[in-house]
C-alpha cells in the first residue's frame, strides 16, 4: 500500500510540473525550470523473442497490528494533605486597668447624685421614692456594674415645685460628695446647676426645655423626647387625622418655653390651622398664682371663641381653668398622663380633648416589654431597710392608692440604664470627654418602657416611641392608645 501511494505521488508531481510550464504569471526573476529529459523508448520485441512476463506485484504486507495498549495503571492516590496547624490563638488584649480617672470615678466605683420629686403637696403618697432609685442602681451593680465599677448613689427627695431644694441638692452632690454625674428627676431647668454651673453631666428622667439644652454645652441628656420634639410629633399626628384643618387655635405657652412658639406655630399652620392668638403664661413657680393667671387667660379665650385651645405646656392647668369657667372648647394636647390631670382636680371625661402622645408606660408594660417587666420585678422583690432598721418588701403593682408609683419606678430604671449605657460605651477611662464621645456615636439602644430609643450627636432626649392617639379610660383612670 505504501509503495502504491508513492507511485501515485510521483505521477502527480510530474503532472503538476508539466502544467506549471504554461503559467504566464511566473516572475521574471524566477530561475527557468529545466525540462526533464524524456526516457528512451523501449525497443519493439521481435517475433522470436517472447516478451518477458511482467513481474508479479509483490504481495502487500499486512500492516503490523497495533500493539495492545498497556493496561492503564491506577493513578497513585493523592497524598493526604498535611493537617493544617491551628493558628496560634490571638492573645486577649490586656484589659486597661481601672484607675481614678476623673472626679467621682475611682478604680472601683462611680459616684452619682440622684433626686426624686415628691408630689405629697398634691395629696398623694407615692411610696418610698428613694427606694425606687436604689433598686434601679442595685440592678446595674448586680449585673457587673459599669466596666467593673459599682455605682454609688447619693439620693435626695425634693419638692416637685420650685428650685430651692433642687439647687441645695446640686451643691451638696457636686461640692461635698464629688459626684461624677447627676442621674435623677428634675423640672424647671434645674439641670443647669450641674451642666452650666458645675461642668457636670446630667441625665434627667424628664423632658427638658430648649433653653436648658442650649445652655448645657452638650452635657445634658434626658430619657424623654425633648419638649419641642414631643409637640411637633403631636401636631403631625393631629394634622394627619384632619383635626387641625381649617381650625382657629388659641395657643398658650409658659414663659420658660417661649422659644418653642415659632416652630410650633409654623407646624400648626402647615397642618391647616390658623392662629387666633398666643398667650404666654408668666407664673410657673407658684401653683395658686399660675391658676389665677389661667383664669384670666380663659376669659380672653371665651371672647375669641376659637375652635381649639392648645396649651403647649401644663395643659392640666388650662383644662382646670376651662372647667371652672364653664367653657366647653376642645383642647389638643400631648399630655397623656392621667395623673397630671387628676392632680389638679380635672376629670378628663368631662372635657373635650384630643390627645396624641407616646404610648403610656402601663400600656407598654401590658404589651410585654421585657426590660420594663424586669424593672418592675426587681422593685417588687426588693427588700428595703428603713432608718429604724425595719425591712419591708416594696411593691409597685398591688397598691391602688399609689397612682404615681408605677411611672416613678419606670423613670428610675430608664435614667439609670441610660446613664449606664453611655458610661459603659465610654470604656475604662471614664471622664467627661469619653462620656460625651460615647454618647455622640452610641446610636440605637434598648431602654425600659420605650418601643424605640437612641442617643447620638446633637440628640438630647432618648425616647423615639411614635405618637399615638389616646382616649380616656375612666376605669383605668388613664389615657390609653386607640387600637
Please tell me about this protein's structure.
The protein has 483 residues and is of the alpha/beta class. It folds into two domains: 220 residues, Response regulator (Rossmann fold, 3-Layer(aba) Sandwich); 143 residues, Response regulator (Rossmann fold), CATH 3.40.50.2300. Helix content is 35%, strand content 17%. The protein has 14 helices and 16 strands. The chain has a seven-stranded mixed beta sheet, sandwiched between helices. The protein has a five-stranded parallel beta sheet with strand order 2-1-3-4-5, with helices on both faces. Strands 11-12 form a two-stranded antiparallel ribbon. α10 links the parallel β9 and β10. α6 packs parallel to α7. The longest helix is centred in the C-terminal third of the chain and has 22 residues.
Topology of helices and strands:
Layout: H1 2-20, E1 109-118, H2 129-142, E2 150-159, H3 164-176, E3 181-184, H4 192-198, E4 201-204, H5 210-215, E5 220-222, H6 227-240, E6 248-254, H7 261-270, E7 274-281, H8 287-304, E8 308-311, H9 315-325, E9 331-333, H10 338-343, E10 353-358, H11 361-366, H12 370-381, E11 383-385, E12 391-393, H13 405-426, H14 432-440, E13 443-444, E14 454-455, E15 467-473, E16 478-481
Parallel strand pairs: 1-2, 1-3, 3-4, 4-5, 6-7, 6-8, 8-9, 9-10
Antiparallel strand pairs: 10-15, 11-12, 13-14, 15-16
Helix pairs in contact: 2-13, 6-7, 8-9, 12-13, 13-14
Outline:
The protein has 483 residues and is of the alpha/beta class. Helices cover 35% and strands 17% of the residues. It has 2 domains: 109-225 and 363-465, Rossmann fold (3-Layer(aba) Sandwich), CATH 3.40.50; 228-357 and 469-481, 3-Layer(aba) Sandwich (Rossmann fold), CATH 3.40.50.
Amino acid at each position: 500500500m505504501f509503495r502504491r501511494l508513492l507511485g501515485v505521488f510521483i505521477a502527480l508531481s510530474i503532472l503538476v510540473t508539466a502544467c506549471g510550464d504554461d503559467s504566464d504569471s511566473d516572475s521574471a526573476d524566477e530561475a527557468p525550470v529545466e525540462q526533464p529529459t524524456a526516457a528512451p523508448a523501449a525497443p519493439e520485441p521481435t517475433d522470436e523473442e517472447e516478451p518477458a512476463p511482467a513481474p508479479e506485484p509483490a504481495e502487500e504486507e499486512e500492516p503490523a497490528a497495533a500493539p495492545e495498549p498497556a493496561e492503564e495503571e491506577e493513578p497513585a492516590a493523592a497524598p493526604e494533605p498535611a493537617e493544617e496547624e491551628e493558628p496560634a490563638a490571638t492573645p486577649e488584649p490586656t484589659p486597661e486597668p481601672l484607675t481614678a480617672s476623673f472626679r467621682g470615678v475611682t478604680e472601683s466605683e462611680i459616684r452619682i447624685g440622684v433626686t426624686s420629686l415628691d408630689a405629697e403637696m398634691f395629696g398623694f403618697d407615692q411610696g418610698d421614692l428613694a427606694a425606687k432609685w436604689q433598686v434601679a442602681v442595685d440592678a446595674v451593680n448586680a449585673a457587673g456594674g459599669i466596666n467593673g465599677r459599682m455605682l454609688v448613689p447619693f439620693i435626695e427627695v425634693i419638692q416637685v415645685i420650685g428650685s430651692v431644694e433642687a439647687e441645695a441638692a446640686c451643691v451638696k452632690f457636686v461640692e461635698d460628695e464629688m459626684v461624677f454625674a447627676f442621674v435623677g428627676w428634675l423640672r424647671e431647668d434645674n439641670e443647669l446647676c450641674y451642666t452650666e454651673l458645675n461642668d457636670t453631666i446630667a441625665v434627667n428622667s424628664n423632658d427638658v426645655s430648649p433653653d436648658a439644652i442650649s445652655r448645657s454645652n452638650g452635657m445634658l441628656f434626658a430619657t424623654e423626647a425633648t419638649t419641642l420634639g414631643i409637640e411637633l410629633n403631636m401636631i403631625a399626628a393631629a394634622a394627619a387625622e384632619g383635626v387641625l384643618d381649617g381650625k382657629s387655635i388659641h395657643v398658650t405657652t409658659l414663659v420658660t418655653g417661649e422659644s418653642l412658639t415659632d416652630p410650633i406655630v409654623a407646624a400648626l399652620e402647615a397642618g391647616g390651622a390658623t392662629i387666633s392668638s398666643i398667650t404666654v403664661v408668666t407664673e410657673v413657680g407658684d401653683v395658686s398664682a399660675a391658676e389665677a393667671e389661667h383664669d384670666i387667660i380663659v376669659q380672653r379665650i371665651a371672647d375669641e371663641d376659637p375652635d381649639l385651645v392648645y396649651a403647649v405646656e401644663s395643659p392640666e392647668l388650662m383644662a382646670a381653668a376651662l372647667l371652672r369657667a364653664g367653657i366647653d372648647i376642645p383642647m389638643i394636647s400631648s399630655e397623656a398622663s392621667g395623673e397630671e390631670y387628676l392632680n389638679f382636680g380635672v376629670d378628663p371625661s368631662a372635657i373635650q380633648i384630643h390627645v396624641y402622645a407616646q404610648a403610656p408606660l402601663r400600656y407598654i408594660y401590658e404589651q410585654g416589654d421585657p426590660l420594663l417587666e424586669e424593672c418592675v420585678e426587681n422593685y417588687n422583690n426588693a427588700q428595703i431597710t428603713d432608718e429604724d432598721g425595719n425591712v419591708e418588701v416594696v411593691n409597685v403593682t398591688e397598691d391602688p392608692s399609689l397612682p404615681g408609683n408605677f411611672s416613678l419606678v419606670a423613670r428610675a430604671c430608664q435614667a439609670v440604664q441610660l446613664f449606664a449605657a453611655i458610661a459603659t460605651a465610654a470604656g475604662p477611662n471614664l471622664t467627661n470627654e469619653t462620656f460625651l464621645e460615647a454618647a455622640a456615636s452610641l446610636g440605637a439602644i434598648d431602654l425600659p418602657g420605650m418601643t424605640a430609643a437612641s442617643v447620638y450627636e446633637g440628640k438630647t432626649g432618648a425616647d423615639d416611641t411614635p405618637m399615638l392617639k389616646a382616649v380616656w379610660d375612666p376605669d383605668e383612670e388613664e389615657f390609653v392608645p386607640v387600637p
